[in-house]
Design a protein that fits this description.
- It is a single chain.
- The protein is of the alpha/beta class.
- It has 10 helices and 18 strands.
- The structure holds (3S,4R,5S)-N-benzyl-3,4-dihydroxy-5-methyl-D-prolinamide.
- (3S,4R,5S)-N-benzyl-3,4-dihydroxy-5-methyl-D-prolinamide binds near residues 32, 53, 254 and 274.
């Protein structure tokens, strides 16, 4: 056990109302929008296949050239209300917006840098427009903030000299002031999503990450911060040197999900997975033919998978430089939304059931006791869905769309749900009621081998 000043401030899940709301929201929309959306992965006629929000580094563009994109930022097709309505139809309960990405450009009129929205032809406070439009639709707004900042002269990747130390301290003060500005000026914001904290410079200043968490929770009571913000006294990140999760939820699942059989440890804490639609594009890229583009159904399965393991799913949208949402993303919002319309109850306020994963799909546990949801993605040719229950649990009924299905107890703590449907276009939901008595005197004799 290490004695830590800047380690985890709490063990176990937060149980306050703000965290229960964040947890119950389950499904969020990530939005990556900044100057990188203007070139969209193409520079001087050349398409760069790397993530579009890194075009500055992948195309080796000088800072002054990149920064002058600010004078072109004038999204004629931007409508915060339209974006919010689309997110509502998709069934997102929260939205996380990049206030400042690695490029350092601020979507709000920050008084701590000129490199912000007020200096663009657009001029208006995009952050305020988005917060107001999404909140008006009943969707919570969270702020993404990159500590890594390619624009700020005092940013350092490591601290190798007294000069680095002095400069980086100025940078940390700048970032602290920006964060306090964000928490103060946008009081309805619920959570802060930190990124760009993997460099040695931040790892050597774990105290600052602790101070930021404390300040945000003072300025904005109930505020939620992700584990990615935090480094402890010894530079350990996400989990402190004693193995305790820092921040309020684990944010290490980026473009990957925990395995439902081998990674069950994640069910012990709150966590969120964030996901791109292409293989690796967060900002708008003009050419999505360069990688696999996930279908609405692939993404819907990831949402259900995440809920089944007690996590939140943050699905990314990368609006174009003109403020339009590309057709692929519109279709994803519409198709996921059509399923969520009728089945959102298996996602919202639902989580890990603690039952053994089966091949046909995922269990989710609603807040209502003695009921469980089966979300079926893969129908076995037998039409028989295997369910193994924890010792002593009995299944009394199974129904889909209000229609009863035959439930057959076939061995100790094992049932088959008869689901004779031969084909379906969207995942099917079966509701299980538990309780009651199993077969009287049922003898399931273990074989002698
Ligand atoms: C949530 C995602 N995190 C950012 C990311 O992958 N940064 C890693 C990175 C930072 C700098 C150069 C290469 C790669 C992405 O741009 C997204 O914002």
């Amino acid at each position: 056990e290490f004695k830590l000043q800047y380690g985890a401030q709490r063990t176990g899940k937060r149980t306050d109302a703000a965290m229960e709301r964040w947890r119950g929201n389950r499904f969020g929309q990530f939005i990556h929008w900044g100057l990188y959306a203007i070139p969209g992965g193409v520079w001087n006629g050349k398409t760069y296949n790397y993530a579009a929000e890194f075009l500055k580094s992948s195309a080796k563009i000088p800072g002054s050239t990149w920064d002058s994109l600010m004078y072109q930022f004038n999204p004629k097709k931007f409508s915060a209300k339209e974006w919010a309505r689309m997110a509502k139809r998709m069934g997102a309960k929260y939205m996380t917006i990049t206030t400042k990405h690695h490029e350092g450009f601020c979507l709000w009129p920050s008084r701590f840098t000129e490199f912000n929205i007020s200096r663009t032809p657009y001029g208006k406070d995009i952050l305020k427009e988005l917060v107001d439009a999404y909140n008006a639709e009943g969707i919570d707004v969270n702020f993404y903030y990159s500590v890594l900042d390619w624009h700020h002269p005092d940013w350092r990747y490591d601290i190798k000299s007294p000069e680095d130390s002095v400069a980086f301290r100025r940078y940390l003060d700048f970032a602290f002031n920006q964060l306090k500005e964000l928490a103060t000026n946008y009081p309805t914001v619920k959570a802060f999503w930190f990124d760009g904290t993997w460099d040695n410079s931040v790892k050597k200043n774990g105290w600052w990450t602790y101070e930021v968490e404390q300040m945000l929770k003072q300025v904005s009571p109930g505020a939620i911060v992700n584990s990615r913000l935090r480094a402890d006294d010894r530079g350990a990140r996400h989990f402190d040197s004693n193995g305790q999760l820092m921040g309020d939820y684990e944010s290490g699942y980026e473009r990957r999900l925990p395995d439902p059989v081998t990674d069950l440890k994640v069910t012990k804490w709150d966590w969120e997975a964030c996901m791109t639609v292409p293989e690796n594009q967060w900002g708008y890229h003009k050419d999505w033919s360069i990688s696999h583009v996930k279908s609405p159904l692939e993404l819907l399965e990831m949402l259900v998978h995440t809920t089944s393991m007690g996590g939140n799913f943050l699905l990314n949208f990368g609006p174009a430089g003109d403020g339009s949402i590309r057709p692929e993303e519109q279709r994803i919002a519409a198709e996921i939304g059509s399923w969520m319309q009728n089945n959102g109850n298996v996602i919202y306020n639902s989580g890990y059931a603690g039952w053994e994963k089966q091949d046909w799909g995922y269990f989710t546990a609603p807040s209502r006791p003695n009921t469980l949801n089966m979300v079926v993605f893969n129908l076995p040719v037998s039409g028989l869905l295997k369910v193994k229950v924890p010792a002593g649990v009995k299944i009394s009924t199974a129904s889909t769309g209000g229609k009863k299905l035959r439930v057959e107890e076939i061995a100790k703590n094992q049932y088959l749900v008869h689901f004779e449907r031969k084909w379906f276009a969207m995942p099917q939901v079966i509701v299980l009621e538990t309780g009651g008595e199993g077969k009287k005197g049922a003898q399931y004799q273990d074989a002698k081998t």
